[in-house]
Amino acid sequence: MTKKYTQLLFVFGASLMAIGTVTAQSVSKETYDFDFIGQRLADPVLQHAKETYVLFGCAYCHGVNLVARGEATDLMHSKLVGRDMDGKLIGALLRSGIPQTAKLSPMPQFSDLSDQQIDNLVRWIHYARAHGRFKELTEAKNTPTGSTSAGKTYFDGKCGSCHSAAGDLAGIGKKYDAATLKTRFLKPRMLDETRSWKVDQR
Length: 202
Fold this sequence. Notes:
Order of helices and strands: HHHHHHHHHH
CATH topology of the largest domain: Cytochrome Bc1 Complex, Chain D, domain 2
Structural class: mainly alpha
CATH architecture of the largest domain: Orthogonal Bundle
CATH superfamily of the largest domain: Cytochrome c-like domain
Number of domains: 2
Number of helices: 10
CATH class of the largest domain: Mainly Alpha
Shape: globular
Oligomer: single chain
Number of strands: 0
Distance between the termini: 45 Å
Helix content: 55-70%
């Protein structure tokens, strides 16, 4: 095989790869439903979770961003979703389904989904719920006044094992204004941190 022939094969192969890449990109843009799914997320892990949620039909009843349609359960304000840890409650419910009741439509069982697919559904539900609830709480016109005693009770039970009011949190009211402190509590920075990383990142 001559050197010139080898070069021609290389150029031809590279051209085919370029055409394939352009074609794949154009097909992706044509088939991606921006009106329904929304803009792509920067984090590919969350984007994949959202697309999994849409692919298996969850969005049709519960809405992409958990704004429910018709008689579907309101996942944004669901007590079960709020109590869920690591998908243990949601995962079990997805696999068993929900029979029809007088108030709610039935939900099919997804017993054939893999653990990874269930994890993706759970990941999107919790992510969309966290952002949706944050938006509701920050845009509410009539925000109820907090209770110091109730806050102390909650802090002692949920936060006190890691944080000390007299230690690492001392003077936090002077460090942040009320609006910033509220935002930090309701929407920790870790909520928007990327869930994926490049191989060269440490």
